Amino acid sequence: MTPAGGDILTVERLTRRFGSLLAVDGVGLGVGAEEFFALLGPSGCGKTTLLRMIAGFEIADAGRILIDGQDVTATRPNRRPVNMMFQSYALFPHMTVAQNVAYGLEAEGVAGGEVRRRVGDMLALTLLSDLAGRRPAQLSGGQRQRVALARALVKRPRLLLLDEPLSALDRRLREQMQLELKRMQREIGIAFVVVTHDQEEALVMSDRIAVLDRGRIAQLGTPAEVYERPRNRFAARFLGQMNLIEGRIAGDRLVVEGLGALPGIRADGVADGQGCLAIRPERIALAKTGGAAAPGTALPGAVAEIAYHGAGQSVHLRLANGATLSIARRAADIDAAPLDVGDAAVAVFDPAHARLLGGGPEPASTPHGS
Ligand SMILES: Nc1ncnc2c1ncn2[C@@H]1O[C@H](COP(=O)(O)OP(=O)(O)OP(=O)(O)O)[C@@H](O)[C@H]1O
């Protein structure tokens, strides 16, 4: 998908080594001028290194970075039309909120009236107008985060880079700020590139997500594309909960000993051979009998475990081949067909929601290199 309005950032085959470790391994991507773009991945996958190269704090070993069509690969950080908001907000403690926001403009010699106007606009945008006279120590974590954002935005960068912008906040505030960040980004209409290891955060805020695995892009797409149509095991497992049933792919089926031939949709580039069927817990229904389900889409088993968590329950169903399926049930499903541990039940799925992915099971991702 090409974002509307052209790309503000283009990254081509970008590579960064630390000794024998390939921290960023030939990454290519484009970010639209008004896009909210997330770099998502586990610790050590290279997302901060990639962000720092875009900002200019880290030098690329190979590849190119273009911002607004200009090659900035060798340009100093302060000469790039980007701004970066760091994990630690680094506010000046002795200055008020308004002074913190004004500082960068004053340092650049912007005239007083213009500074006041732009600071006023930014404080309004970040909902800080009433707190303009306070010092950082008199603010909550979320308010401090907004000051840091106002300070980064007041210089009107075309592109703002944010490294784990919400990691210092508690869960409630983080959820609220996810929506706020998105609103502010939309209102000012510039591109945001956000580094996060929090998949829910990436799904909620982003227009598109690049999922990184050991320095490479495992998948790039909209939240719905990456979540609903993972291309590989890494993306499938990294975002949300996923059942992976192991077997051999033959055409549009996964052949599993003891379970039969299960239908699904092959991800691009997947060949016949070792593979798995990936299906989300919320895409499986539990019934007492298979009813009129299509061949291979009703898997009988026994309820092994039930975890209740308010809005629903998570059921583990032991299948005939010994594998376990995780199934998410909502309150209405539970009322319609209550189940207890030990009950026989049938897991029914729609092949449209089952993805056939290639390769064998891998151990959990570890830092790479030699
Ligand atoms: N200056 C450095 N010298 C040597 N190795 C480094 C350096 N900076 C990063 N690395 C290594 O490069 C890899 C990628 O690091 P990076 O900080 O980009 O990962 P990350 O995905 O941002 O992780 P986290 O979420 O933990 O911050 C890691 O294995 C890290 O140890």
TrEMBL record:
It catalyses: ATP + H2O + polyamine-[polyamine-binding protein]Side 1 = ADP + phosphate + polyamineSide 2 + [polyamine-binding protein]Side 1. Residues 9-239 form the ABC transporter domain. InterPro entries: AAA+_ATPase (IPR003593), ABC_SmlMolc_Importer (IPR050093), ABC_transporter-like_ATP-bd (IPR003439), ABC_transporter-like_CS (IPR017871), Mo/tungstate-bd_C_term_dom (IPR008995), P-loop_NTPase (IPR027417), PotA-like (IPR005893), Transp-assoc_OB_typ2 (IPR013611). Keywords: ATP-binding, Cell membrane, Membrane, Nucleotide-binding, Translocase, Transport. Its EC number is 7.6.2.11. The keyword Disulfide bond does not apply. One of its GO terms (molecular function) is ATP binding. The keyword Translocase applies. It is an enzyme of class 7 (translocase). Part of the ABC transporter complex PotABCD involved in spermidine/putrescine import. Responsible for energy coupling to the transport system. The complex is composed of two ATP-binding proteins (PotA), two transmembrane proteins (PotB and PotC) and a solute-binding protein (PotD). Belongs to the ABC transporter superfamily. Spermidine/putrescine importer (TC 3.A.1.11.1) family. This is Spermidine/putrescine import ATP-binding protein PotA. The gene is potA.
